[in-house]
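just leaving the lab so this will be short. what follows is a protein written twice so to speak, once as letters and once as structure tokens for the fold. can you read through it and tell me how you think this chain folds. anything you notice is useful, everything is just below:
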Amino acid sequence: MNIVVTGASRGIGYELVKLYSANANYTIIALARSEKKLQKLKEECELINPTSKVIIIPYDLTSNNLSKDVIEEITKHISSINILINNAGAIINRPFQNITIEEMEYVYKVNVFSVIRLTQALLPIMGLKERSHIVNISSMGGFQGSAKFAGLSVYSSSKAALACLTECLAEELKEKNITVNCLALGATQTEMLNEAFPGYKAPLSAKEMASYVANFSLNAHHFINGKILPVSMSTP
């Protein structure tokens, strides 16, 4: 099984790669900007399982050459993808009237446009033999009807866009042997949560949430498609 995880240098993405690496039959492509953090992740995975197959690709997903560069690098190692976890995210916590257009564009580039471009690039090697599963990691902040928080207008709206994109792609790709679902995650103890809510203690650790995401990615596509599922024990 071949798995691609973005945002793998910290938080849930980091823990996800470690969980997947325990299975020697999985080849995991770990994408993130920090080569140093990815190398540390690879070393930890090798301690967990000396036969693990973790391939690290340091890359900035906001790059204009994303589609060409990433597909070329990934296809050096694998010829098909079973699971794509679009986990990379960016956040800014600031009053709406003080947010610059550059900051808005950056958050949307990471949270929405990089997902679109990466998914477009990888579609040709998905659903080839077995059904592939795309899992978009959204947030309760972008879940319609959920509690909203001052300062997170750009972040939450970008995650709402990702949820709607999921529904659209699920319909468009269902005949291509590809399932698309979205998890709207609640508070999890990660660096990103600390940025948004300094000092807040979340009910779940990154490892605990990663365990849920891993199980979902491996099994849910046999039962559901195009769904946005809230995964939360608290507010936020």
About this structure: The radius of gyration is 17 Å.
